[in-house]
Amino acid sequence: VTFSISAVLFHSEQQVRDIYMMSRLHNEINLSFLKMYSTLRRVKVAFSNSAAISNPNLPIITAEDGVTLVVNPQHHAVPQLYESLNKIKDLLDLESDNHTHLLSLVQKNGQYGYFTPYRPHYQAILNSLAKDPESLGILKKYHLAEEFDESLLFCDIRTSEVYKEEYSHQQMLSIFMPIFDKKKVSALAIVDLNSDFIAYKIRKFNKENNTYFQLSDSKGMALNIPCITTQEYIYTPRFTPDSWHHLLFSLAIATLATLLFNSYFKLKGVAFRDKLTGLHNRSYFQRKQHSLRHCYSVILMDIDDFKAINDHYGHDTGDKILRGLAEIIQRCARKDDLLIRWGGEEFLLVLYTDNVVVAQERAEFIRKTIAETPINGLRISVSIGVSACTEQSFELTFKQADIALYQSKALGKNQVTLFRENTESSLPPDVSH
Question: Which residues cross the membrane (predicted)?
Fold first, then answer.
């Protein structure tokens, strides 16, 4: 009887430990991808702030700072990205434990491509793309946004299934991200990972934590890696070499189960917080979106002239401003409001009311509070767009708030605009953030 009770206790303890450790592994793998996604998004910033290479007679192949640029003879303006891509590749190597096979940025019509490291067959890929821009096919295959506005509503990055690379015949796992210029796709940033990256993370975790998890394509706990096209699972075999040793500690482990579960739930929340501001991020909102009530309002905020602030005072000051702004908005928000750092210098506040007067007054209060509260010794202002929803989709409500935000920018910034049916038609054709 004692053995049976011990066996039952052991089985329960083992299950508790497996769930806890599996959740830790799940979060570690997810965080690895989220960190790589965040680092890859720096390519967008580098692209937006790059100067064009002034030499009109570029050689077909040029290497600098460990990065190789390949151009086609008919190329137009080529952005200067050697140093930026080299630094981003170093960060990706660190975050992937040196499992990053390649970082590249390929112009969509094959006019140029940056590669680090470079291999001869990349020139053939670029030439093929120049002859037939549709030959790449990645945007359509992985349902990536081809317009900037569309990328705001869904994941702007996709991770592929494991596949065999056509030229090298190596097994790869790739991350794709479109780069926009004037709201249209201009280029594609690509990170190629070694195909065993996820399996490597599991092996490393097993070694460090004395566990025996394995990767599966059909059974176990779903990894739910953000923005990936295939589902992977992790599971533990029914019997492991340490099973009988753990039996001796079953009673002690059972008393710690509550503490372990508390740690598990804390770890679970890491993936849905913005690291810089501590606010919920867009991934959190995408999971929360389905539970939005029918009646709500959207307040979309964008910091005025934030690029100029970054350029003049540096990115450290820019980060402090983002953190300070998040604190101000939090103080202005109510307990049941939903505040999200939407991306870059944009913040989204969802109010659970469709009363446009209430929403507009709240937005004006936030705008005025920000304008009157110095952050890091600087006066900051925001432009705000407001839209209310009753029965329509969130996507449409968000688009209306974004149009109203553009109107605020067009009218001189530092103001609140409520979306009305004629708001979009009154916008100048060249208005942008």
Answer: 244-265
